[in-house]
Write a structure and sequence with these properties.
The protein has 150 residues and is mainly alpha-helical. It is built from 5 helices and no strands. 18% of the residues are buried.
Length: 150
Amino acid sequence: MLAVVLITALTPALMLLGAPYPILSGFAIGLMGFIPFGAILGILVVSILFMFKSFWLGLRVFSVLILVDHVIENILPPRLLGKLNGLNPIVILFSVMVGATLADFYGVITAVPIAATIKALFLVPTPLAATGSGTNPDIPADGMEMGASS
């Protein structure tokens, strides 16, 4: 999903900047998004190639695409992870920062699962009293099931 968003956001940006081969460049950068840090590497390679045509074009392409990629990378993945595991996107960003500080690369990889586990451990289950009477509404107070004849 991230690759599709990158392609659909970067291709029009390249078209607006007047870059040559905007569709090919947008697809190349978007597909590089499957690799960790691949989108940034793709932006760097495309920008360097455009610098051979015009230095200022390459610089404009680099600055705009890095800005667009930065916005996409910091908004979309936390929201997707938040929907998958029920964590707030800010909690996800905070846990990744703490994981990176404490355990470098391995901390980044394990931060979200650890945060989700901590949330599940501290989540208080709702008691049966949520129905109001504290009993199961399908079972009458005398203990006999409904529809049972005596």
